[in-house]
């Protein structure tokens, strides 16, 4: 997870900041529609950032793949005996 956060976390954070910033500028408008849209954008991006970085990361840490789980190359080997013995 540390590698995933270091590689993809920057892109996710950058997208969050730019989208949140564009929504925050809508709060300054006088039209009620713009203000409601600002609430919608900022709350959506905040919740999705928290879920993707905190909840999903901790969920993968708890229930993520272990040993050969998720390794598709391991399951496609021709020798079936190594697959059964390693499980």
Describe the structure.
- The protein is mainly alpha-helical and 87 residues long.
- It has four helices and no strands.
- Helix 1 runs antiparallel to helix 2.
- It is elongated and about 65 Å long.
- The two termini are 24 Å apart.
Helices, by number, come to: 4
Radius of gyration computed on alpha carbons: 21 Å
- Strand tally: 0
Please report which band the strand proportion falls in: under 5%, 5-15%, 15-25%, 25-35%, 35-45% or over 45%.
under 5%
Question: Which spans of ≥5 residues are poorly predicted at pLDDT below 50?
Answer: none
Largest sheet: none
Topology diagram in text:
Layout: H1 2-25, H2 32-63, H3 72-75, H4 80-86
Give the key terms.
mainly alpha, 0% strand, 87 residues
Summarize the structure.
The protein is mainly alpha-helical and about 90 residues long. It contains four helices and no strands. The chain has one domain.
């Amino acid at each position: 997870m540390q590698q995933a956060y270091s590689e993809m976390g920057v892109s996710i954070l950058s997208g969050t900041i730019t989208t949140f910033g564009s929504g925050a500028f809508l709060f300054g408008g006088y039209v009620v529609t713009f203000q409601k849209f600002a609430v919608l954008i900022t709350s959506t991006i905040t919740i999705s950032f928290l879920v993707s970085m905190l909840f999903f990361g901790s969920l993968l840490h708890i229930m993520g793949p272990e040993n050969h789980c998720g390794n598709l190359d391991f399951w496609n080997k021709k020798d079936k005996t190594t697959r059964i013995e390693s499980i």
